[in-house]
Amino acid sequence: MGQVVALFVFPQDGGAAAARGEVLARLDGGFDGDHARTPQRAVTVLALEQWREALAEIGADLPPAARRANVVVSGVDLSGTMGKRLRLGGAEIEVLGEVKPCHVMEETRPGLRAALTPGWRGGVHGRVVRAGAIRVGDTVEALAAP
What we know:
alpha+beta, 7-stranded mixed barrel, two-stranded antiparallel ribbon, M1 Pyruvate Kinase, Domain 3
């Protein structure tokens, strides 16, 4: 089991991250206060350990908000979660794929895009399958596929 260490919403697509202590995950989308997303990519999750590995590789020190993920977790290897569910506090997310780092990561820091590419370091995306509240400090558990 892991832990939720940070939560972010992005009120405008491409806009700045807004940190939250708690969010509500909705079945018809992602988080309250986040910009509209497709149901299949309603939520993005980043593993803090993998983020730090990527940064160490390029000698950078950036906050996890720079990755633009909704949830930052610790103690969970996201590379093995495809098709599984992540229980995040009172909500569950079905992991539908790997987040592929885009040009924005390269604009943030040269070399970051390549550093995030191996081992699912860029995180995962998925859909909300159980609505509920998620709080910083909540436990995270990878559940078997239904």
